[in-house]
Design brief:
By secondary structure, the chain is of the alpha+beta class. It is built from 11 helices and 13 strands. Helix 1 crosses helix 4, helix 3 crosses helix 4 and helix 3 packs antiparallel against helix 6. Keywords: Signal. This is Lipoprotein.
């Protein structure tokens, strides 16, 4: 399977099923938008028996084509992007020309980059630094960013949000398995909290979604932003959410907001400070709290997910991007990234934001 179809197909189909927070690795995402390091270029390998992945291929192809169509990006623009990518080692390796299928995968990745810059979630500087961290030279990253800014992104249409559904708010405070938000089904959320516009309330704070975005009003100054997982086993359960306040609140208010969306048996561990990874151009930090909860283990086990009696909350004073926390942690909280599972320090011994 071509490199970018594998990466982007994964991003489109299952990225929403991954926990928010990304603590521990201290390295950029495996879904690369930048140049391929020399050690990852193609080499001769022993042939392997063919596998029947026709269903996966069809799903990947359909997702990519749908994303390009929705963004208004045609094959001519895809090929211009691919030529810039080939010239700057953003494809399959130095000196390897990509085909249209590979280039479509790269285009879908860059569509999200365009939209994230447009809503204010990321910056051109941040994109360049992230690409350099992934292996691009300064000149290669600048060439790609310039093409995106001047030719590609002006042709990308904004993400179109689905109309808000009609709702009857009559759900109990807990779902059928004892969940109160994290890992609860979408049907429970829709019967518990009013939907609001994701584009207006969440896009700038949380960036482009990896699936269908949803947003809920919890209080006058508090919304939940989330993505409905595309993975079949997790379909229609919000296993990770972001709580966003209209202005920063104190830690006591933030802690109560986190606990309100976790099972009632959630017990917090000692908080741990986190810092941005070394490759990030941003200076910033966060605060992490892990919660022990037996109910969460039962909730995730019912979804076929790795069942652990843990949930976690990452607190940010300003916000979080793919480049790390925006600014230092000050004791005030603007955004909480809530998820199943615990966040642990990486190989360096430090927890990364």
């Amino acid at each position: 399977m071509p490199r970018y179809r594998r990466a982007v197909g994964t991003a489109l189909l299952v990225a929403a099923a991954l926990s928010v927070g990304g603590c521990g690795s201290g390295t950029p995402s495996a879904t690369r938008t930048s140049a391929v390091p020399a050690e990852e270029t193609k080499t001769e390998a022993e042939p392997t028996p063919p596998t029947d992945d026709s269903d996966a291929v069809t799903a990947d192809d359909t997702s990519i084509e749908d994303a390009l169509t929705a963004a208004g990006v045609d094959d001519a623009l895809v090929n211009r992007l691919g030529e810039v990518g080939d010239a700057n080692n953003y494809g399959l390796g130095e000196g390897v020309e990509t085909d249209l299928e590979d280039r479509r995968g790269l285009a879908v990745v860059q569509i999200d980059a365009c939209r994230n810059v447009d809503v204010g979630y990321r910056t051109w500087r941040g994109l360049r630094y992230a690409d350099e961290a992934n292996g691009a030279t300064e000149e290669q990253a600048a060439a790609m960013a310039d093409f995106l800014r001047t030719e590609f992104c002006p042709n990308v249409t904004a993400l179109k949000e689905a109309p808000l559904p009609e709702q009857t708010l009559d759900a109990a405070s807990k779902d059928d398995l004892g969940g109160r938000g994290v890992a609860s089904p979408l049907t429970w959320w829709d019967a518990r909290y009013p939907r609001v516009s994701w584009s207006k309330e969440c896009a700038k704070q949380t960036g482009m979604p990896g699936g269908d975005p949803v947003a809920y009003r919890l209080a006058n100054d508090e919304v939940v932003c989330a993505t409905v997982p595309a993975a079949a086993a997790l379909k229609d359960h919000l296993i990770s959410v972001d709580v966003v306040f209209s202005s920063p609140v104190d830690e006591d208010r933030a802690r109560k907001a986190a606990l309100a969306l976790l099972p009632s048996d959630a017990s917090p561990e000692e908080p741990t400070e986190g810092t941005n990874p070394d490759w990030s151009y941003l200076g910033g930090g966060c605060l992490n709290t892990n919660f022990r909860t037996s109910t969460m283990k039962a909730l995730t086990d019912s979804l076929g997910k790795d069942a652990e009696p843990w949930a976690s909350a990452l607190y940010y004073s300003d916000g979080s991007t793919e480049d790390g926390a925006v600014g230092d942690y000050t004791g005030k909280v603007k955004q909480i990234a809530l998820s199943t599972g615990a966040n642990e320090p990486g190989t360096t011994g430090e927890l990364t934001c």
